[in-house]
Design a protein that fits this description.
The structure is a single chain. The chain is about 45% helix and about 5% strand. The chain has 3 helices and 3 strands. A 3-stranded antiparallel beta sheet has the order 2-1-3, with no helix packed on it. A hairpin with a 6-residue loop joins strand 1 and strand 2. Helix 1 packs antiparallel against helix 2.
Length: about 130
């Protein structure tokens, strides 16, 4: 997926290119960890011999939280480290591209917000 930076108008991949699957996996792991923890507290109350069960719960929770945090760190511009970058087909990106007459496909690292690139026009994707 292509991204655009709203600060330096860089086009391309972001620094940490994590997908929505990372978020949904993290949410799934976190919810499963909480459910397992609740079930463990209900059925294994006071039982210390089932430490393996609690280690699995900790692993599932940590994995879910790590994936959620990793997703939140994504979308950083590799050119200027601005966060977040905009997906090229998002309404904000289309507005930015039309406003500054940007051309996707090449990095416009030299253009600034005050100086629009007037070299070509952009045709917005139809919704």
């Amino acid at each position: 997926m292509q991204w655009v930076c709203s600060k330096c108008h860089y086009f391309g991949k972001n620094k940490n290119n994590y997908s929505l699957d990372d978020y949904s996996d993290g949410l799934f792991y976190s919810i499963c960890g909480v459910i397992l923890l609740i079930l463990g507290l209900i059925f294994f109350e006071g039982v210390t011999s089932d430490i393996f069960y609690y280690l699995i719960i900790i692993y599932v929770l940590v994995t879910g939280i790590r994936r959620l945090v990793r997703y939140r760190k994504g979308c950083i511009c590799p050119n200027c480290t601005h966060k977040p970058m905009l997906a090229l087909d998002s309404p904000e990106a289309i507005k930015l591209i039309k406003q500054f007459d940007l051309e996707p496909g090449e990095s416009n690292s030299s253009s600034t917000i005050n100086e629009p690139n007037t070299s070509s026009s952009f045709k917005a994707p139809e919704a």
